[in-house]
Amino acid sequence: MDYDPLFWERLFWLIKYSDSINFTNILNEVLVFALTFMVIYHGYKKYGIKKIVLFFSGGFLFAALEENEMILAGYDLKGTTFMGIEVPMTYYFNYHGYILWFMAVPIVVACSWFLITYTSVQITQKITKRFVISSLLGAFIGMSMDLMIDPIMIRKYNWIWLADLDQAFWILQVPISNFIGWFLLIFSFNWLFYWYHDKYLEKRNWNQWKSILMFYVLMYAVLIIVEFITVGITLALFPFYGIDISWWAWPS
Amino acid sequence: MALTFLGGLGQVEVIKMRKWIPIVGFLSFFLINLISGILLISGIVPPLYYEDPPLYVPLTYLDLIFLIGLNLPSLIIVAFAIVKTKNSED
């Protein structure tokens, strides 16, 4: 299954197709937005408006930028070769599967990312107050949830992985880079936020705009580093390419 | 005075409930996706695309149980957090 025929033409449309406005999609998006608002309310009461806005906007952008980068890189590099090896295609979201979009990424997906990232570490902070360990545990439970979500959603064709079997190391018919990326992104974002919160936001040793701007700069730097690490680990797993750890037969 | 007392009581209840929001949010999102799987298997919500031959083996209830099983370690962590939350102020 290839990209939507109007993938590029409709990249900047907020709503891609009118048939995406159906009962199932409306219910799904309303529920996720409601949960997102509920969690933002929790953050507002616990950390105050400035910090939760920073967490939400940062988390939203972190997820939306990363996913857009991966999708557009795959789209741009389609059919190209590097050192004689065909560059593996990445994935894309089905334009009919979601109503509201931020370029190639459904807004509800970026909200879901914030939801998982925020709640997972709030949960693990109940177990340990050491923020590196709670961020690691949070990343683990967030990634675990994705182990369930991905196999369901690819069967609904809400998103589609385009690489061939021999172009990746797979788990449950999903490239392992997806789970490595989830783990690293949740860990790094939470670690950055809580480290930055304790070091700069809480102590107020910088003025407001400087501390906000610096957070976004650091966030983007961390995002780039995480992407490089994810690609590096994925390439290091080259000997395992062509293996799929799952109980399902590989699609013919 | 009675109103102030009741208002105060309401506020305490809201604060008590607020500590549960992250757990409720996390588990609700888990449940939304689980229900998506059930709706897909039952055929109530069909896949968005059909290809012949299909790209993937269709999902079954047994698959869903295995997928929940993969989440057992994280659900145990959440269960620990529930116990801790019960005994905590916030």
Question: Any overview of this molecule?
Answer:
The complex is a heterodimer of chains A (252) and B (90). Chain A contains six helices and nine strands; from the N terminus they run ααβββββααβββααβ. Chain A has 252 residues and is mainly α. Chain A has one domain (18-245). In chain A, the strands form four sheets. A three-stranded mixed β-sheet of chain A has the order 8-7-9. In chain A, strands 1-2 form a two-stranded antiparallel ribbon. Chain A has a two-stranded antiparallel ribbon with strand order 3-6. In chain A, β1 (81-82) and β2 (85-86) form a beta hairpin. In chain A, α2 (49-76) crosses α3 (107-124). Chain A starts with 22 loop residues before the first helix and ends in a 7-residue tail after the last strand. The relative contact order of chain A is 0.12. The mean pLDDT of chain A is 90. Chain B has one domain (17-86). The interface between A and B is large, with 49 and 46 residues.
